Amino acid sequence: MIGAFGSPWAVDASGADIETSFTVEGDELVQLVQHAGAQYPVIADPVWFVPVVVAGVRLAIPIVVRAASSAAAKQAAKRIASNKFGSKKVKRSISRRRQRIALTLNPIYVLSNRLYW
């Protein structure tokens, strides 16, 4: 296993869900966001799971990895939205999104490749 990722999601500044999907282009995973008509900023922050391999036992444990660039982009979008729309509205939108993630437990998709020991 190379890694895994959750279902794609995107939300605009008003808290509305935006249609989004993943595609594979060559050896890259690309998230397509249908942002026409959305209120900016748009936030899309995929969650990646990367296996931690212990070679002696051959045990793979998935851990959540969030890229620093994704976290920085999300913070910047939150700051811009807070300045434009007011911090209470943005906090409510993000809080609702976290609740939906916690309640729906989106399926995990797995990227695989041959492993040679």
Characterize the structure shown:
The model is unreliable at 54-69 and 85-117 (pLDDT under 50). The chain has a four-stranded antiparallel β-sheet with strand order 5-4-1-6, with no helix packed on it. A two-stranded antiparallel ribbon has the order 2-3. The protein has one domain (3-111). The protein is α+β, with helices and mostly antiparallel strands and 117 residues long. The two termini are 13 Å apart. It has helices at residues 68-85, 87-104, and strands spanning 3-6, 20-25, 28-33, 48-54, 59-65, 108-111. It is built from two helices and six strands, in the order βββββααβ.
In short:
This protein is α+β, with helices and mostly antiparallel strands. Helix content is 31%, strand content 29%.
List its salient traits.
single chain, 117 residues, alpha+beta, 4-stranded antiparallel beta sheet, two-stranded antiparallel ribbon, 6 strands, globular, disordered C terminus
Principal-axes geometry comes out as globular
Helix/strand/pairing class, anyone?
alpha+beta
- What percent of the residues sit in helical stretches (DSSP H or I)? 25-40%
Average of pLDDT: 60
Alpha-carbon Rg, integer: 17 Å
Measured between the Cα atoms of the first and last residue, the distance is: 13 Å
Separate helix tally = 2
Total strands: the figure is 6
The SSE string, one letter per element, is: EEEEEHHE
